[in-house]
């Protein structure tokens, strides 16, 4: 494994960063949140650039680079759910321009004389209310259905640019048998790594905004960035982000290399990202003072994206417990 980006990956990172800065500025996010603007044109940009074709496991690091930059930009499209959740449960099913979401729990399948029937309700489905297709994980296997077969209701959440939905199946009949070529546990690894990288990107945005603020804000005739207490908080944020970033890309590397440590690495990445956002959220607000609480400040979007990702697919405490269990199992 290589633990530094090669020249192609660095170029890819610069390219993605330039595109997101141009196509997904904070003004777009604010227009979507305040005025209900349609993020569809932005999704079409991603499709046109080929970003929705990074579905092979070998491209996990390159996909991770995109996810980090989209986390930094508070991406309002279904890219995260489509690429890291749905695509892993339904490889080769969707067209590049189709969106997808994953239903991990709450839905059951039974078979009658005419085939398979789905029933149940899933909570906290990322982009479940606006996906074209749904990959539904059941005890019988993974079923792929069109979204119109389910009833989805968007739930109010902390991040106003994020779509979280309750998805209900009422005796929905599906064609064919469940997919036998998909391992939901392995698919979940990329979902966790994707959330971790998105969190890292959002936290980096918070740090960037905070640094810009403390370099320009003056108190007692000097910039507040010259105060030791401010420098300590900024340094702590930087260290937490670098730690979370390293573990997130390590998780992406284990997926790309099909390394047996991928399960442990995914939980480590999610736990580190959760701990990172907790510290960055607190310090970021403190460095901005009262300004950080205002609606006019773009800091809110990055803070909310980072905090929302912490609550999806298990928080830091849950994944630390999983890491402990796996480590103890190796000692037996």
UniProtKB/TrEMBL annotation:
Keyword Flavoprotein: yes
Keywords: FAD, Flavoprotein, Oxidoreductase
Keyword Flavoprotein: yes
Co-factor(s): FAD
Transmembrane segments: none
Domain Acyl-CoA dehydrogenase/oxidase C-terminal intervals: 194-324
InterPro entries in UniProt: Acyl-CoA_Oxase/DH_mid-dom_sf (IPR046373), AcylCo_DH-like_C (IPR036250), AcylCo_DH/oxidase_C (IPR009075), AcylCoA_DH/ox_N_sf (IPR037069), AcylCoA_DH/oxidase_NM_dom_sf (IPR009100)
Top-level taxon of the source organism: Bacteria
Protein family: Belongs to the acyl-CoA dehydrogenase family.
Annotated protein name in UniProt: Acyl-CoA dehydrogenase family protein
Lineage of the species this protein comes from: Bacteria, Bacillati, Actinomycetota, Actinomycetes, Mycobacteriales
């Amino acid at each position: 494994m290589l633990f530094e980006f090669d020249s192609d990956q660095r170029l890819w990172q610069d390219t993605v960063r330039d595109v997101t800065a141009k196509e997904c500025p904070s003004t777009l996010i604010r227009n979507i949140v305040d005025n209900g603007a349609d993020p569809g044109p932005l999704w079409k940009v991603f499709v046109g650039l080929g970003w929705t074709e990074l579905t092979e496991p070998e491209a996990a690091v390159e996909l991770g680079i995109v996810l980090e930059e989209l986390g930094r930009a508070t991406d309002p499209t279904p890219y995260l759910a489509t690429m890291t959740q749905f695509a892993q449960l339904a490889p080769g099913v969707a067209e590049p321009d189709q969106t997808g979401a994953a239903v991990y729990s709450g839905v059951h399948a039974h078979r009658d004389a005419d085939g398979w029937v789905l029933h149940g309700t899933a909570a906290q489905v990322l982009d479940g209310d606006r996906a074209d297709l749904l990959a539904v994980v059941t005890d019988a296997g993974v079923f792929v259905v069109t979204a119109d077969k389910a009833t989805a209701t968007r739930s109010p959440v902390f991040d106003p640019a994020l779509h979280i939905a309750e998805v209900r199946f009422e005796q929905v009949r599906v064609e064919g048998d469940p997919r036998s070529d998909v391992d939901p546990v392995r698919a979940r690894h990329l979902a966790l790594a994707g959330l971790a990288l998105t969190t890292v990107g959002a936290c980096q945005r918070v740090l960037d905004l905070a640094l810009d603020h403390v370099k320009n804000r003056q108190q007692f005739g000097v910039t507040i960035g010259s105060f030791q207490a401010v420098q300590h908080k900024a340094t702590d944020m930087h260290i937490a982000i670098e730690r979370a970033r390293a573990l997130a890309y390590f998780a992406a590397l284990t997926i790309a290399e099909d390394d047996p440590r991928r399960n442990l690495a995914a939980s480590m990445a999610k736990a580190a990202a959760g701990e990172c956002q907790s510290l960055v959220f607190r310090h970021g607000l403190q460095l901005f003072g009262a300004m950080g609480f205002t609606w006019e400040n773009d800091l809110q979007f990055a803070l909310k994206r980072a905090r929302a990702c912490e609550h999806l697919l298990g928080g830091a405490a849950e994944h630390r417990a999983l890491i402990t269990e796996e480590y103890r199992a190796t000692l037996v």
